[in-house]
C-alpha cells in the first residue's frame, strides 16, 4: 500500500517549494480557508478535556449532528449517530463491518478503493451516468453485481459521493433514485459520503440516498470541507433507523473501540458547536460556497479554452478536465499517452501539480486529471480571508494573476 495520491501530492508540493521551485498547487483536496475564530475558541475551551469519552461520541456532539441532518431534511436521532476521528476511519470501519465486496463509481475518491484493498477486496468499479459523478449507473451496477455474484463474489455495499470528488459534479435525483432502487433489489447497503453537501453551489433539493433508501443508507460527514478543518479529524456517521442500521452501528462501535477508542474530546466539543449551525458559521459556509464556486467555474473555463472537455463544477472545489480532444497534439509534441504522463508533464514542464485520472480509478488511456482549486486562493491567511469575504473572489489581484498564469501555461502546453 502506497501513500494516498492526494497526500503524496501535498508532500510533493511542499518539497518543491522548499527547493525554491515554482509550483501551482492544484493537487491536494484541502479547503484552504482560515479557521473561524469561534471554532478556535470552542476548541481552546475544551483543550483540558483529556479523558477518554464514550466510543460513539459525547451526547452533545451526537445530538448536534442529529440536528444537523434533521435540519437538512433527514430526520435523525442522536442514537443513530456515531463519531470518529474523521470520516476516513468511519468509512473503513463501515466496510469492515459490512463485509463482502465493494461497488464503487468510476471515477471515485482514491481512498475508497484503497480501503477495500486493505480489507483484501478488489472493488467493482461501475461507470457513472454520462455527465454526472459520484453515483454508479444503476443499470450497469445491476449487471455488474449479478455477474460478480454468478462468478462467486459477494458484493454487499455501494459507496457514493454527493457532490463528487473528483469530478465536482452532483448526481441527478433521477440517478440517485435509480441507484437506491437497484440497491434495494440487490440487497446492497448504500454508504453516502456527503462530506461536501454544504458546498453545493446552487440552492435546490439535495438528492440524498437516505431519502429514497432510508432503511439501508449510512451517511457520513465531517468538518474538514465545509469548515476547512481537515487537520482536526472529526467526523460523523448516521445509521438507518432500522434493525439493519442498529446492528450495523453496534458492529462499527465495536470496531471503533479497538481502532480509535474515542474521538478526541476537544474536537467533539468544537463539533457540537459547528453542527448546531450557529448563524455566524452558516454565514462562513455561504462565503465558502461563493469562493469555491467562483474559482472552480473560472478554472473550468480556463481548461475549456485550452481545448479540454470539462463539465461545469457543481459543488466542492474540484474540476475534472479531459484532454482527450487535444490528444493528438499532446502525443506528438510531448509524448503524452496516459493521464499519468499528462500529470507528470504538467508538473515537470510548468510546475502545475494535479492528480491523474488513474488515481481515481479512471481508464489509464483517458486523459483526465483532477484539479483542486484552493491552491489559487492565496499564499497567506490574510489573502485567503480576503478572498473569502470578497463579493467577486476571482477579481482579487492574486487570484486573477493565478488564473491568467494557469491559462497561459495551458495554452503553451496544448499548442500543436
Fourth-level CATH superfamily of the largest domain: Type I PLP-dependent aspartate aminotransferase-like (Major domain)
Report the span from N to C terminus.
Answer: 38 Å
What share of the residues lie within helices? 40-55%
Mean pLDDT: 92
Q: Count every helix, treating DSSP H or I runs of 4 or more residues as helices.
A: 14
Q: Can you list the strand order of the major beta sheet?
A: 2-8-7-6-5-3-4
Write out key terms for the chains shown.
416 residues, alpha/beta, Aspartate Aminotransferase, domain 1, Aspartate Aminotransferase, domain 2, seven-stranded mixed beta sheet, three-stranded antiparallel beta sheet
How does the SSE layout of this entry go?
Elements: H1 5-18, E1 24-25, H2 37-45, H3 59-71, E2 81-84, H4 87-98, E3 101-106, H5 110-118, E4 124-127, H6 138-150, E5 155-161, H7 173-186, E6 189-193, E7 217-222, E8 235-238, H8 243-259, H9 265-274, H10 279-305, E9 318-319, H11 327-334, H12 339-350, E10 352-353, E11 355-356, E12 369-372, H13 381-389, H14 397-414
Helix pairs in contact: 2-9, 3-9, 4-5, 4-8, 6-7, 10-14
How would you sum up this structure, described in words?
The chain has 416 residues and is α/β, with parallel strands linked by helices. The chain has 14 helices and twelve strands. It has helices spanning 5-18, 37-45, 59-71, 87-98, 110-118, 138-150, 173-186, 243-259, 265-274, 279-305, 327-334, 339-350, 381-389, 397-414, and strands at 24-25, 81-84, 101-106, 124-127, 155-161, 189-193, 217-222, 235-238, 318-319, 352-353, 355-356, 369-372. The strands form three sheets. Strands 2-8-7-6-5-3-4 form a seven-stranded mixed beta sheet, sandwiched between helices. α5 links the parallel β3 (101-106) and β4. The mean pLDDT is 92.
Amino acid at each position: 500500500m502506497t501513500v494516498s495520491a492526494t497526500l503524496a501530492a501535498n508532500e510533493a508540493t511542499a518539497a518543491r517549494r522548499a527547493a525554491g521551485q515554482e509550483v501551482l498547487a492544484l493537487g491536494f483536496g484541502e479547503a484552504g480557508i482560515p479557521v473561524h475564530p469561534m471554532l478556535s475558541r470552542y476548541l481552546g475551551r475544551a483543550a483540558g478535556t483529556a479523558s477518554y469519552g464514550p466510543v460513539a461520541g459525547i451526547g452533545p456532539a451526537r445530538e448536534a449532528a442529529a440536528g444537523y441532518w434533521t435540519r437538512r431534511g433527514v430526520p435523525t436521532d442522536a442514537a443513530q449517530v456515531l463519531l470518529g476521528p474523521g470520516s476516513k476511519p468511519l468509512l473503513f470501519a463501515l466496510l469492515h463491518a459490512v463485509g463482502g465486496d465493494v461497488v464503487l463509481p468510476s471515477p471515485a475518491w482514491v481512498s475508497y478503493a484503497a480501503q477495500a484493498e486493505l480489507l483484501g477486496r478488489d472493488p467493482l468499479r461501475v461507470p457513472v451516468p454520462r455527465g454526472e459523478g459520484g453515483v454508479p449507473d444503476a443499470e450497469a451496477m445491476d449487471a455488474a453485481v449479478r455477474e460478480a455474484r454468478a462468478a462467486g463474489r459477494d458484493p454487499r455495499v455501494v459507496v457514493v459521493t454527493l457532490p463528487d470528488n473528483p469530478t465536482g459534479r452532483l448526481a441527478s435525483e433521477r440517478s440517485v433514485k435509480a441507484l437506491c432502487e437497484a440497491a434495494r433489489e440487490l440487497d446492497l447497503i448504500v454508504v453516502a459520503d456527503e462530506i461536501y453537501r454544504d458546498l453545493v453551489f446552487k440552492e435546490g433539493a439535495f438528492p440524498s440516498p437516505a431519502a429514497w433508501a432510508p432503511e439501508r443508507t449510512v451517511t457520513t460527514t465531517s468538518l474538514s470541507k465545509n469548515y476547512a478543518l481537515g487537520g482536526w479529524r472529526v467526523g460523523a456517521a448516521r445509521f438507518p433507523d432500522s434493525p439493519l442500521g442498529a446492528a450495523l452501528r453496534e458492529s462499527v462501535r465495536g470496531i471503533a473501540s479497538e481502532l480509535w477508542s474515542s474521538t478526541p474530546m476537544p474536537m467533539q466539543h468544537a463539533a457540537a458547536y459547528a453542527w448546531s449551525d450557529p448563524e455566524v458559521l452558516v454565514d462562513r459556509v455561504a462565503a465558502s460556497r461563493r469562493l469555491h464556486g467562483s474559482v472552480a467555474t473560472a478554472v473550468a473555463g480556463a481548461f475549456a479554452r485550452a481545448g479540454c472537455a470539462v463539465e461545469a463544477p457543481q459543488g466542492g472545489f474540484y474540476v475534472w478536465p479531459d484532454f482527450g480532444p487535444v490528444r493528438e497534439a499532446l502525443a506528438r509534441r510531448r509524448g503524452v499517452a496516459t493521464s499519468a504522463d499528462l500529470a507528470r508533464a504538467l508538473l515537470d514542464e510548468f510546475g502545475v501539480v494535479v492528480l491523474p485520472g488513474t488515481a481515481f480509478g479512471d481508464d489509464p488511456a483517458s486523459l483526465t486529471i483532477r484539479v483542486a482549486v484552493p491552491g489559487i486562493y492565496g499564499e497567506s491567511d490574510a489573502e485567503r480571508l480576503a478572498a473569502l469575504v470578497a463579493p467577486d473572489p476571482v477579481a482579487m489581484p492574486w487570484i486573477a494573476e493565478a488564473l491568467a498564469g494557469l491559462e497561459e501555461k495551458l495554452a503553451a502546453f496544448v499548442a500543436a
